[in-house]
Amino acid sequence: MIDPNLLLGFAFTALIIELTPGPNMAWLALLSATEGRRAGLAASGGIALGLLMVAAISALGLAALIDRSPLVYELLRWAGSLFLLYLAWEGWRAAGESSPAVTKSGATRHARRGFVINALNPKAAVFYVTVLPEFLSPSMPAAPQAITLALVSVGIATMVHLTLVMMAGSIQAFIADESRNRLTRRILSLALVAVAIWLFISAAR
User: Fold this and answer.
1) What's the distance, Cα to Cα, between the start and end of the chain in Å?
2) Buried b (16+ CB within 10 A) or exposed e, 145-161
3) Dihedral, CA atoms, 190, 193, 199, 205, nearest 10 degrees?
4) Whole-angstrom Cα distance, residue 38 to residue 162?
5) pLDDT, mean of residues 184-194
6) What are the tens digits of pLDDT across the range 37-64?
7) What is the CA radius of gyration of the chain?
8) Rounded to whole angstroms, how far apart are CA atoms 99 and 182?
C-alpha cells in the first residue's frame, strides 16, 4: 500500500523530470528520426531495462554507495558522458550515408545501447536515493513503497520515450533525402554533444 497523495506527487515529479531534455530524449530523437520507429522502440526497451536495473540496485542499497563514493560517482559520470559523445560522433560520421550497413543496426544493438546509457548515468541512481525517499510514508513499510514508486517512475519514463519515438519516427520519410539526412543527423548529433556536456557539468560535485 502507498499513500495516494504521495504517489500522485511522485508521479508528477517524475513526469516533469522526464520531460526535461536529457541523454535519453536526445539519443532517441537522433535514432528514431534517422533510422525509424523500430530502432527507437528497441532502444526504448533497453532504456527501460536500464532504469529497472538502477531501481533494483537502489533497492539493494548500492545506489546509496554511489551517492556517497566520490570515486564511483565520478567514474560513472565520465563514462556516461563519454559514451554519449561517442554516439554523437557516430551519428555525425554517418551523416549522409544511406547504406543499411552503415546507418542500420539490429534491434539488439539499439536495446543494448539504451541499456548502457542508463547503466552509466549516475543521476538516475541518485534520483532514487535523494528524491524517492521524500515520497515514502513513515507509517507504512518502506520496501513495498520504494518498489511501487520505482515502477511508476520507469513506467512514466517509458511512456515519454515511446511518445518521442513515434513523433520522431514520423519524419523519417522527410529526411530520406541524402541532404536532409545529413543535416538532421548533424543537428541532432550537435544536440547530443550539448546534452553530454550538460550532463557532465550538472552532475559534477
Assistant:
1) 36
2) bbebbbebbbebbbebb
3) -130
4) 11
5) 82
6) 889 999 999 999 999 988 888 766 766 6
7) 18
8) 13
pTM: 0.73
Asked if residues 125 and 51 have their Cβ atoms less than 8 Å apart, the reply is: no
More confident residue, 71 or 45: 45
Task: Of 151, 144, 118, 194, give the one whose Cα is nearest residue 11.
Answer: 151
Q: How many CB atoms lie within 10 A of CB 182?
A: 16
Calpha distance 177→182 (Å, rounded): 9
Q: Which of 28, 185, 29, 46 is nearest to 109 (CA)?
A: 46
Helices (H), the chain: 4-19, 23-35, 37-59, 62-68, 70-93, 100-103, 107-119, 122-130, 142-169, 178-202
Tens digit of each residue's pLDDT (9 = 90 or more) over 75-116 = 877 887 888 888 888 878 865 544 333 345 678 889 998 998
Assigned C-alpha cell, 61: 542499497
Q: How far is CA 52 from CA 15, 77, 125, in A?
A: 17, 19, 11
Across the chain, mean pLDDT equals: 80
Please count the residues of the chain.
Answer: 205
Q: For residues 17 and 127, is the Cβ–Cβ distance under 8 A? A: yes
pLDDT single digits (tens) 124-153: 777 787 777 778 787 887 778 888 888 999
Place of cell 541532404: 179
